[in-house]
Specification:
Elements (H helix, E strand, L loop, with lengths): L2 E6 L3 H12 L4 E5 L6 H6 L1 H19 L15 H25 L3 E4 L1 E6 L2 E5 L5 E11 L3 E3 L12 E2 L1 H4 L8 E5 L3 H12 L3 E6 L10 H13 L3 E4 L2 E8 L2 E7 L5 E6 L1 E4 L3 E3 L33 E3 L10 H15 L13 E3 L4 E6 L2 H6 L4 E7 L4 H6 L5 E7 L5 E8 L2 H13 L4 H5 L10 H12 L6
Parallel strand pairs: 1-2, 1-6, 2-3, 6-17, 8-15, 9-10, 9-15, 10-11
Antiparallel strand pairs: 4-5, 5-6, 7-16, 12-13, 13-14, 18-19, 19-22, 20-21, 21-22
The structure holds flavin-adenine dinucleotide (FAD) and nicotinamide-adenine-dinucleotide (NAD).
Length: 467
């Protein structure tokens, strides 16, 4: 065999699997159909969206918050072309970083569409239409996902768009109609709302970010409404038609009333679907699940074909970059004969709105459904000295702890820098800390993390200090 490991796809699952395999002394190749490495995450996902979130947050603060800090700006203006150029540069730096890491780790990169000829042979269709073949003892499928749509909506990529196009708009929409109040909708909706667009969100469920703890969705909706976003919850979209520079979205209210909204762009953000087109899975006797088109794997992330593994968005579980990365490491270590472990219960979820939303572990709804008795401790950021200093008063930390043992079962945060704060909760829960353990640990003052300690004090025996 030419290679010990061939990875198909270079997203956070694939590139991490390739690097970890190489670190373990396995001769490794990675096949990527696009010109740059990094997959959805680096090219059209996490990284460009965060670049735009940061830029738009600066703009929003300059236009809405600087004055209270005693900073006056005259003639503030938006240079959309520069904002997009910076985003493109951020992406380029990150994707170039992966090329550097591949070279450093002596990983052979092949550009082209990889497909199975048999379980050890991958045919690569290169951009110039020529083909090459490589063989490997182990194959890791890391082909990720693509935006999904609704069967009755035609994405034209101009006025009816997905997240990919929303990351490259050359103008601020006047009115962005958003289908789906999940992570992508709220992050990209925030970008354009901060830049001055009217943003209307139509969500099928009765809450935004409906899979997270209900309290978080409620609070986030309140704050985003203050920022100017409007919400139609429990509404069912029935159509979207583009005509010239306008899009009309039709939808049904919970009571059956017919409604419509006309905007200049409609972003469809109703989830993503696993991507296996052109992989030739049938050549090795593999099929995909009907719903979601995911590849089925066992606990070792191995498919029903020995030596063929699959990781990341293309398999079950959360569609998150860090989950894909963890699986990349896991599978390389399995191939090298090690016995790695992933704690799927402790994969944090983050929404990069402002305030940020971050959570790990069980929600109240899940604990109730499982009949687990729990205690709750909450602490609002408006009572945090650090938050008062920065002016970020919205949100809270909520800790759920086992009623009998005090073990922390879930942490749900909405507030400033929640994305970074959640790491402490992950560590605590990995070591099975009780709420009292955290209550007794020193937290630097003044920091937002003190709010986590206060929520633990509230959960332990209702004795927060600062409220
Ligand atoms: P992908 O990143 O999708 O990579 C798959 C790669 O495989 C692609 O490069 C593709 O070109 C390649 N490929 C596919 N088929 C073939 C083939 N036959 N041959 C060769 N190559 C092939 N997650 C987070 O955790 N945090 C975030 O902040 C976040 N923000 C996001 C924002 C947006 C707008 C989007 C769309 C997603 C975001 N995500 C975020 C989700 C995250 O991007 C995905 O979970 C992650 O990229 C999945 O990694 P992956 O390696 O499984 O697949
Ligand atoms: P999502 O599942 O987060 O949200 C989709 C939303 O659309 C849901 O709230 C759902 O109820 C709603 N919906 C579905 N059908 C609908 C309909 N017919 N009408 C109205 N609403 C409808 O999916 P997404 O926001 O598209 O994101 C896709 C994936 O990308 C997610 O799995 C997410 O994990 C990942 N992602 C993660 C981050 C992050 O970690 N910060 C950021 C962006 C994307």
């Amino acid at each position: 065999m030419q290679y010990d490991v061939i990875v198909i796809g270079s997203g956070p699952g694939g590139y991490v699997a390739a690097i970890r395999s190489a670190q373990l002394g396995l001769k490794t190749a990675c096949v990527e159909k696009y010109a740059t490495y990094g997959g959805t995450c680096l090219n059209v996902g996490c990284i460009p969206s965060k670049a735009l979130l940061d830029s738009s947050e600066h703009y929003y603060n300059a236009s809405h918050a600087f004055k209270t800090h005693g900073i006056n700006l005259d003639n503030l203006s938006l240079d959309m072309a520069q904002m997009m150029k910076r985003k493109t540069e951020v992406v380029a730096k990150n994707t170039a970083g992966i090329s550097f890491l591949f070279k450093k780790n002596k990983i052979d990169g092949y550009q082209g569409i990889g497909s199975f000829r048999d379980k050890n042979t991958i045919s690569i269709k290169k951009p110039d239409e020529t083909t090459a073949e490589i063989t490997g003892k182990n194959i890791i499928i890391a082909t990720g996902s693509k935006p999904s749509s609704l069967p009755f909506i035609q994405i034209d990529k101009k006025r009816i768009i997905t997240s990919t196009e929303a990351l490259t708009l050359q103008e601020v929409p006047k009115h962005l109609v958003l289908i789906g109040g999940g992570v992508i909708g709220l992050e990209l909706g925030s970008v354009y709302a901060r830049l001055g667009a009217k943003v209307s969100v139509i969500e099928f469920m009765d809450s935004i970010i409906p899979t997270m703890d209900r309290g978080l969705g409620k609070e986030l909706q309140k704050v985003l409404q203050k920022q100017g976003m409007e919400f139609y919850l429990g509404h069912k979209v029935t159509g979207a038609i583009a005509k010239g520079k306008e899009v009309t979205v039709t939808f049904d209210a919970p009571n059956g009333d017919k409604k419509e909204l006309t905007g200049d762009y409609c972003l469809v953000a109703v989830g993503r679907i696993a991507y296996t087109n052109g992989l030739g899975l049938d050549k090795i006797g593999l099929s995909v699940e009907e719903h979601g088109r995911k590849i089925t794997v066992n606990d070792h992330l191995e498919t029903s074909v020995k030596g063929v593994y699959a990781i990341g968005d293309v398999v079950k579980g959360a569609m998150l970059a860090h989950k894909a990365e963890d699986e990349g490491t896991f599978v390389a270590e399995v191939i090298a004969g090690q016995k790695p472990h992933i704690n799927y219960n402790l994969i944090p979820g983050v929404v990069y709105t402002w305030p940020e939303v971050a959570a790990v572990g069980q929600t109240e709804e899940q604990l109730k459904a499982a009949n687990i008795k729990y205690k709750t401790g909450s602490f609002p950021f408006r009572a945090s000295g650090r938050a008062v200093a920065s002016g970020d008063l919205d949100g809270f930390v909520k800790v759920l702890a086992d009623a009998a043992t005090d073990e922390i079962l879930g942490v749900h945060i909405i507030g400033p820098r929640a994305a970074d704060m959640i790491a402490e909760a992950v560590v605590a829960m990995e070591f099975r800390a009780s709420a009292e353990d955290i209550s007794r640990m020193s937290h630097a003052h003044p920091t937002y993390t003190e709010a986590f300690r206060e929520a633990c004090l509230a959960a332990t025996d209702n004795r927060p200090i600062h409220i």
